[in-house]
Specification:
The structure is a single chain. By secondary structure, the chain is α/β, with parallel strands linked by helices. The protein has a single domain, classed as TIM Barrel, CATH 3.20.20. It is built from 6 helices and 10 strands, in the order E-E-E-H-E-H-E-H-E-H-E-H-E-E-H-E. It has an 8-stranded mixed sheet. The longest helix is centred in the C-terminal third of the chain and has 14 residues.
Amino acid sequence: MADKSAIEWTDATWNPVTGCTEVSPGCDHCYARTIAERFRDVPGHPYQQGFDLRLWPSRLELPLKWKTPRRIFVNSMSDLFHKDIPDDYIFQVFDVMRRADHHNFQVLTKRSARLAKLAPKLPWPAHIWVGVSVETIQYRWRVDQLRQVPAHVRFISAEPLLGSLSELNITDIHWVITGGESGVGHRPCNPQWVRELRDKCQKTGAAFFFKQWGGRTPKQGGRLLDGMTWDEYPNSELTVIA
């Protein structure tokens, strides 16, 4: 059985790596770090080491055992292209994804430079999607590096959305996910920032997914944008059984 996810745009999570380090403002209130650090020094717990980086080779082949097709978010509790993850381990993760072609895999990173560097050595069948996080326009370069990757589906996660992305070029991007921040100290999300991304998607034909407004809890602000929910997915998606 896959690890079911409460994340609206995926069905399950797979964490062959856990733990990470901060690289930009979107990391300030990281939900994964908050979860992991609750269990630091708890003997025998998977997060006994807190949010310190850890490889889990025993988890590598789990998707091959999950028979029902799923959208699988890869490393929801880490970043596969973190500098301390060996190239060979990344190749092993991609080999499992290549073989488990009854699933859709959603690989999301803030380390777009390393992604672009390794991309020519990695397999890119249609069921492996890749995306970058862009929380403010200062990180637009991540999208430029994403465009260098020959994936069939390239996507942007603009969550938490911390500023206007009106100047962002989404040419050759197939899917945009966005949402406000949630949790203690959450920063506000201006509705106009979200509308700008929706309108960009409608002009270019990219799918648009609005996850949440955010607030003290993820669901506090709801999911409606101009009276609608926006749950679009890329056209090349495989059949997924809910």
